[in-house]
Amino acid sequence: MPSLRTITADDSAPTGGPGIPWDGIATLLSPHQLREFDLRLTPNRDASIPLDFAIAPLTTFSLSLWDHDNHSSAQAGVASLVKYIINVVAPSLEHISIPLDVALLAEMAASSWPHLRKLELKGDLDTNFVPAIIDVLSQMPHLRHLTILRAQRNDSPRHALWSNAYYTKGFPCPQLETLCLSHMDPADEFYRHLPPTLKQLSLRCWPRHYLHQRGYDQRALTRPEWQSQLCTASEIRGVLHQCGLDTLESLEIEYAEDDREGLLLRSIPVLFPRLRTLTICRYRRPGSPSINAADIAQALCRLHTLRVLRLHADLVDAPHPEADFMLGSSHLTFSIYEETLREFARDLARNLGPDLRYICLLFRRRWANLWLPFRITRDLEGSISEVRRDVDLISVSGYSLWDDASPSIDTQVPLPDELDLFEF
Q1: 230 domain-assigned
Q2: InterPro entries in the record, alphabetically (predicted)?
Q3: Range of 249's domain?
């Protein structure tokens, strides 16, 4: 196969079993013309790489493990493969995506990455005996796209990326265009140094905070001792004021409601007047009523270039995602809520800018967490003529309509003792 440039190995099932034997890994990586390797299976789980083998000069290496699993049983084999890849092909890689559990940050910080443009790290990380992330980034001067989605452990502080050693050296990736971070530390100096090239900024939770709100999901997440420390609206506002990015085109924030949420929302058009896409995941304080759509729209009405608004409003009357298994009229329940979301989208659209084309509202159900897209149609005079759900889309402006998967999604019906009846 002289034209073979991409290999994807995937069994579409959770990790288990002994893993791919090392001679199989060596065979997959051997074609000299291979440039992209996407591995969604674990190599031999019980042993490290037994011998050296030739690897093509890859430009893309991606290793995916199931997000919500404990990967300790697979680390011996996976970590040795990652280390071997780093040592052999780091100079040629342009894109690397690996779990934080096995990222080997010390090896990454000691390697040279002259061509790397995209770095994606996601998972769990023990902060003991690892270098600062900023030390890794210092070896990637041409990085354009950075994603670090690190789960929050029960016993760990929030994630600070900056190191005092770099205060005089400037930002290590001056060409950075997109940045996605989870569980940020509001006191982190990192945000004061972001380069003016940045066009897309995401400050979110990983996994999503809504996965910590229901018992069935939460039990799956607590197996690896994860928690969700939401930043407040005030903390997010403080960080955004540090950024100084008036040319930003896309912003995502996830936060808990507090008394200054209105100030946060009103500050967004002032700080980021050129936004084209805005994603907001906000969570009510316990016992608080639903937020008014008109209040959100009024706060954001000066975003004249906004084309897509994605919003999780955490409405009081949202049905339980597991209602399919508890309520005989669940289909009607979800249908009624979809109509509620359509009315909410209509109220938003009335007061937002004329360039707005889509409002996507989060709709949680057992089988998926979806952004329902509502298309805004205008007449020749620019007035809104229709707000309706667009059922034919799979993405809007490059953003998937599928949000993060729930850890409890599987083919089994939940047992009675796995659901909290008081939640319904």
Answers
A1: yes
A2: LRR_dom_sf
A3: 199-424
Q: Cα separation of 149 and 87, whole Å?
A: 24
Residues 359-394 have pLDDT tens digits of 999 999 877 899 999 999 999 888 999 999 999 999
What gap in Å lies between CA 13 and CA 237, rounded to an integer?
41
Q: 315-355: per-residue pLDDT in tens?
A: 999 998 877 766 555 567 888 999 999 999 999 999 999 99
Q: Are residues 132 and 5 in the same domain?
A: yes
CA distance 9 to 15: 13
- Do 118 and 220 fall into the same domain? no
* Beta strands per DSSP E along 67-110: 95-99
Angle at 148 between CA 143 and CA 153, to 5 degrees: 160
Look-up of token digits 């009607």: 332
Residue found by looking up tokens 């936060």 in the block:
255
Q: With respect to residue 188, please indicate whether it lies within any of the assigned structural domains.
A: no
The sign of the torsion formed by the CA atoms of 42, 44, 50, 54 equals negative
What six digits make up the tokens of 273?
A: 């007047």
Nearest of 233, 388, 397 to residue 305 by alpha carbon: 397
Residues 288 and 389 in one domain: yes
Whole-Å CA distances, 247 to 198, 201, 252, 305: 8, 11, 15, 12
Domain match, 164 and 236 both: no
Residues 6+ apart with CB under 8 A from 412: none
Task: For residue 48, tell me if it sits in a domain.
Answer: yes
**Which two tokens mark 358?**
């889509």
pTM above 0.85, yes or no: yes
Q: Are residues 257 and 403 in the same domain?
A: yes
* Residue of 15, 10, 50, 47 whose CA lies nearest to 28: 10
Domains: count for the chain: 2
* Same domain, residue pair 167 and 230: no
Tell whether 171 and 216 lie within a shared domain. no
Pairing between β-strand 395-396 and β-strand 399-400 as defined by DSSP bridges: antiparallel
Residue 417 is assigned to a structural domain of this protein: yes
Q: Does one domain contain both 133 and 31?
A: yes
